[in-house]
Task: inverse folding
């Protein structure tokens, strides 16, 4: 959609846990074709903000708007159907099913056929081929017969990315996608994010601690600190700002 509304917007989005305000009136707009990195120190509220946006936590106050529609009270599955994809938390693995079946079910769901666990594979040749395509993109095709539970942590993360790709969302939300991966595995995921960004019609939100990754991918950086939005702008200016140097990079603080 290309109307006056951004793809995704939060207005004064807030959540309180008892007396603690974990996300404090965060207002932000996200446009198509952009990759926004969300950074901040541990405990800043980044993942909690993601959980509010994707519908995994109920907001105490404020709004989440998707294409201008208020989805603040909508459950996570409904937000997924409307085009929002959340990696690593929204898309759960079926640990006792093979790798290929995990992705095939996502392809089947995207095709509107439902999650029919007992359907015969022979009736879904096209779905299997699509699933194999996504597995190849994350370098897991050779592990297609392996149970998801038997994968290494890094391979499980790659499988979750394959499932997210299979759902073909308009909005990709990656929460530290390379955490727990070996040095050799990281480029697979970063290259995929580059490919998604190159499509120019997807909106990407990325929580990431590695500043070299942020610099290589981000069009924009927003900074959360103690639940508040404290900086928002071009990567170079945000990284160089005093608030980020102190709050995120630790400049000026004792070790």
Result:
């Amino acid at each position: 959609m290309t109307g006056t509304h951004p793809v995704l917007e939060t207005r004064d989005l807030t959540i309180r846990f008892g007396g603690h305000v974990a996300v404090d009136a965060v207002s932000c707009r996200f446009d198509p074709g952009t990759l926004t990195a969300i950074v901040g120190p541990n405990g800043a509220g980044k993942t909690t903000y993601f959980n509010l946006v994707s519908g995994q936590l109920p907001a105490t106050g404020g709004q989440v708007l998707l294409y201008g529609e208020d989805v603040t009270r909508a459950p996570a599955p409904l937000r997924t159907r409307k085009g929002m994809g959340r990696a690593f938390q929204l898309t759960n693995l079926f640990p006792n099913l093979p790798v290929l079946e995990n992705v095939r079910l996502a392809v089947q769901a995207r095709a509107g056929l439902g999650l029919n666990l007992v359907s015969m594979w022979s009736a879904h040749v096209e779905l299997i081929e699509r699933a194999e395509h996504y597995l190849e993109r994350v370098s897991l095709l050779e592990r297609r017969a392996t149970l998801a539970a038997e994968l290494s942590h890094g391979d499980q993360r790659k499988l979750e990315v394959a499932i997210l790709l299979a759902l073909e969302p308009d909005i990709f939300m990656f929460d530290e996608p390379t955490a727990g991966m070996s040095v050799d595995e990281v480029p697979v995921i970063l290259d995929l994010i580059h490919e998604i960004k190159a499509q120019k019609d997807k909106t990407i939100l990325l929580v990431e601690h590695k500043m070299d990754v942020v610099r290589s991918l981000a069009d924009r950086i927003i900074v959360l600190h103690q639940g508040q939005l404290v900086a928002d702008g071009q990567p170079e200016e945000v990284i160089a700002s005093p608030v980020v140097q102190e709050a995120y990079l630790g400049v000026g603080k004792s070790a």
